[in-house]
Amino acid sequence: MNSEKSYLTVLIGVAVITLLQSIRLLFLPAISWARILEWVIPSIGFLIIPLLWLRANNFSISKLGINTNWKKPKYLFLAFATGLLGFLSVINHQIIRGDPFIITSKVLLVAVFMSVIYAPLRELFWRGFLQTKLQETMKHKQNAFIIVTFLAIIAEIPLFLSYGKTPTSIIMPMFNNVVFNLAFGYVFYRTESLQTVMIGHGIYNFGGMLSHGYEIIEKILV
Q1: Domain locations along the chain
Q2: N or C: which end of the chain has fewer CB within 10 A?
Q3: What is the model's pTM?
Q4: What gap in Å lies between CA 120 and CA 76, rounded to an integer?
Q5: How far apart are CA 102 and CA 65, in angstroms?
Q6: Where do runs of H (alpha helix) occur along the chain?
Q7: What are residue 132's phi and psi, to 5 degrees?
């Protein structure tokens, strides 16, 4: 019964987040400024769902993997190495496309939001909440890592469909998303430290917004 309840909780959580990330694509496709909803509204869901779960079960925040493990040198190295690889991958994609790097105050502001708020809250939901919950339920923890990574990738498809104007502009970011969801999921599986993947994902998102931020913000959000 407990495992069935856990699976139901996971499915409901994923469904809610996927819907929140699909708001613009489904309901406001013609409104350019509504793209910001794809970042802000899911962030609220990323935060509220795990907190409601903690409160309902009278758990402490350490249940989500928030601990001191991240201070270990090897875990700090994993965090920065994973994030830096992501940072370099999106910058390299920009270079391959031959697009100029244009960084404005708006781009920097959104880059900070995506790295300091969005990325940590996303990891709080997918890794701290869902992956932790499934790891407790499943006999083999690696199965939880694989399942949650797959669900996280699927849930973000609406974002990439709404961003992209050409097949390449959709496929390349989705490929990065697959690779680094696997990386962050694996790092959390090995370390059980939420802060570790929060740091790595924050660095990755910062690079992503510096690379593509002008195209998304200055050209679209007008």
Answers
A1: 2-218
A2: N
A3: 0.85
A4: 15
A5: 37
A6: 2-21, 23-27, 37-57, 73-97, 105-113, 119-123, 132-137, 141-155, 157-163, 167-191, 194-213
A7: -60, -45
